[in-house]
Design goal:
- The protein is mainly α.
- The chain has one domain.
- Helices cover 81% and strands 0% of the residues.
- The protein has ten helices and no strands.
- Helix 2 packs antiparallel against helix 3.
- It is globular, with a radius of gyration of 19 Å.
- The two termini are 26 Å apart.
């Protein structure tokens, strides 16, 4: 097993105590509730990545509390491998969280009509789903270099702020004017579908560039830190 694989395994072990049956069940229920009540499948992406953003901080929290950054070299883990492993951990965490959230979205779509709620999954909503995903990944790409530069304890605000914004957004969507705002966003995204291939390509390339820049900044910042 490579150094990077070792680190990814260690990072997933850090979230294991927080992902027991009771905790996982509670998160699933909360996620299903938010998705069903929002009435659109876009929120499944939001819920999944919101939880992923929360869990991705746990390795940084544990490293700060137990000074693991100073321990990694004794395990044969150089700093570049630590950064590479952490980014791979976040990627796998995102994929797993979104997959679970998508399943919850399908369940929410089934439950919504049973309790008298509408549930939207038209093409405009799918576009909004994609935009939400890109936004979350971009936020993560901006957060990670900051965590590697200063550690978690000094940068809690940078993980709390996006979650607060997302929670506020869900509240707005669920409010009196939320349906109108969502409808306008879906209408706009539906209109630009004729250019979706070009736009999708531009967005993906921009996101890849952002991730590459983020990774290289993290390596530079982490190599300069003293433990």
């Amino acid at each position: 097993m490579s150094k990077v694989q070792h680190l990814v395994k260690m990072d997933f072990m850090t979230i294991k105590p927080y992902s027991g049956i009771k905790t996982s069940l509670a998160l699933l229920i909360v996620g299903l509730f938010l998705i069903t009540m929002s009435g659109n499948i876009v929120s499944s992406m939001g819920a999944g990545l919101m939880f992923a953003m929360l869990f991705m901080t746990y390795p940084f929290v544990l490293s700060d509390k137990n000074n693991l950054d100073a321990l990694y070299p004794t395990l044969g883990l150089d700093r570049k491998s630590v950064v590479k492993g952490r980014y791979l951990f976040v990627l796998l965490l995102n994929i797993g969280s979104v997959a679970i959230a998508f399943i919850l979205g399908c369940v929410g779509k089934f439950i919504a009509p049973l309790i008298g709620l509408d549930f939207s999954d038209d093409m405009g909503t799918v576009w909004l789903f994609s935009v939400a995903g890109v936004a979350f990944i971009a936020i993560q790409a901006l957060q990670l270099p900051i965590f590697f530069k200063y550690g978690y304890q000094k940068t809690k605000f940078f993980i709390i702020l996006p979650i607060a914004v997302v929670s506020g957004g869900i509240g707005i969507i669920g409010g009196n004017n939320g349906g109108e705002l969502l409808s306008k966003a879906i209408t706009f995204l539906t209109k630009i579908q004729e250019h979706k291939v070009m736009m999708f390509s531009i967005i993906i390339v921009a996101l890849i560039v952002l991730i590459i820049i983020s990774y290289n900044l993290s390596v530079i910042f982490y190599k300069k830190r003293e433990f």
